[in-house]
């Protein structure tokens, strides 16, 4: 029987409800911006940065609030919609490390306003490299700093004006502890000997450009698995494109106009008039009803399209097929994939980090589907480099992957 009273316990986390210096006013004019630039220039050390978007409400993933915190500068909040760009803010931070949490989410919208990090530290990615299971900001501040953060407004519509005071308090707290968290995670990386790995990852993030647009994005419509045949898929495509055009014009999230499931339902039933269209629940919404002619026109285009202009039933392949098809397409490659995945899993466990952070699964699939010939560790390393795998990852994985591929 265990003696729980002998086991030391950590004190409960302290709920952080107010920023140290209070909630600053949101900067929305040139005089305010002038004061911000002076404050940032007077500050020292890295800068914590966060951005709030209106995902699920607006079409464009733009920033509607940007928060910064730096020693000597305090916390700053900027309404980027009130300025042409923030290039001058970027210039004042040109030689500064930027600290972000889950940087890949915020970097595109920051770049849209002219803010690009010269160097960065991603606290979420650092936690993953350290092998931590819970890597959300609140979980990390609680575990490493002893503070808990409320996350009530993470899914709010940040395009709302004026922004409620409670939301601004939440936004200020998002950068309140980032510098302290960065320092604690840097210590952990150092203790685990992973600081060089993190440096490579952070450099790659800082240098990354915007994500490439998806090919045939309409194929990601929820419920499309219920749609059968090229003609019906053509209806999905036409409805999706009609909705996307309207959403872009209105700057509304497409799901706020007509939900995906309604598009799939219409593609299956192919309504030919308003009455039949409005029997589908998703089209009974305000924007669905008001744009019924648009949807019927889209369905008519699919109905009249030549067979040669219809989409293929299966998505065009760019790279290896879906892994569930490997056994039937190439049993030898399927066996290779099992071995390479096992090799990666063992290495990840050995180095105490998630397998997907050790090496991207897509890179493993590409290598496994078409290994280099003749097979050698050098050629495997070249193939991994071509797939964007970082040097530290190649050093750890290339030998084991070569061995796994050689067992054919």
From TrEMBL:
Naturally occurring in which organism (per UniProt):
Stackebrandtia endophytica
Residue ranges occupied by any HRDC domain in the UniProt entry: 229-309
Identify a single GO molecular function assigned to this protein: nucleic acid binding
- Protein name, per record: Ribonuclease D
List this protein's GO terms for biological process: nucleobase-containing compound metabolic process
Q: Look up the domain of life of the source.
A: Bacteria
Positions of region (Disordered)? 1-22, 305-326
Against Pfam families, the record matches this protein to: DNA_pol_A_exo1 (PF01612), DNA_pol_A_exoN (PF18305), HRDC (PF00570)
């Amino acid at each position: 029987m265990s003696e729980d009273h002998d086991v030391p316990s950590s004190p409960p986390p302290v709920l952080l409800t107010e920023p140290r210096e209070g909630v600053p006013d949101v900067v929305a004019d040139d005089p305010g911006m002038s004061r911000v630039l002076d404050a940032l220039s007077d500050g020292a050390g890295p800068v914590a940065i966060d951005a709030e978007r209106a995902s699920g409400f607006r079409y464009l993933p733009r920033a509607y609030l940007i928060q910064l915190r730096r020693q000597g500068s305090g916390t700053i909040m900027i309404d980027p919609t009130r300025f042409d760009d923030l290039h001058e803010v970027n210039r004042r931070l040109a030689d500064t490390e930027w600290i972000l949490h889950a940087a890949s989410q915020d970097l595109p919208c920051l770049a849209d306003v002219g803010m690009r990090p010269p160097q960065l530290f991603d606290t979420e990615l650092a936690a993953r490299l350290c092998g931590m299971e819970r890597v959300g900001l609140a979980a990390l501040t609680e575990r490493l700093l002893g503070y808990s953060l409320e996350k009530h407004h993470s899914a709010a519509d940040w395009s709302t004006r004026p922004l409620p005071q409670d939301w601004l308090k939440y936004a200020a707290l998002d950068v309140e502890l980032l510098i302290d968290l960065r320092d604690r995670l840097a210590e952990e990386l150092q203790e685990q000997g992973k600081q060089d790995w993190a440096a490579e990852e952070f450099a790659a993030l800082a240098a990354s450009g915007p994500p490439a647009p998806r090919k045939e994005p309409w194929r990601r419509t929820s419920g499309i698995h219920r749609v059968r045949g090229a003609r019906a898929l053509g209806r999905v495509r036409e409805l999706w494109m009609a909705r996307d055009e309207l959403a872009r014009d209105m700057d509304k999230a497409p799901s706020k106009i007509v939900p995906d499931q309604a598009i799939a339902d219409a593609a299956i039933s192919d309504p030919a008039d308003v009455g039949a269209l409005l029997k589908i629940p998703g089209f009974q919404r305000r924007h669905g009803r008001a744009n019924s002619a648009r949807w019927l026109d889209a369905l008519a285009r699919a109905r009249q399209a030549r067979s040669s202009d219809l989409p293929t039933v299966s998505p065009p392949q760019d790279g290896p097929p879906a892994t569930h098809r490997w056994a039937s397409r190439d049993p030898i490659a399927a066996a290779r994939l099992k071995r390479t995945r096992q090799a990666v899993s063992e290495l990840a466990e050995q180095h105490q980090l998630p397998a997907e952070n050790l090496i991207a699964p897509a890179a493993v699939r590409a290598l496994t589907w078409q290994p280099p010939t003749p097979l050698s560790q050098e050629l495997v390393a070249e193939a991994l480099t071509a797939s964007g795998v970082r040097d530290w990852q190649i050093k750890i994985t290339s030998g084991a992957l070569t061995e796994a591929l050689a067992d054919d």
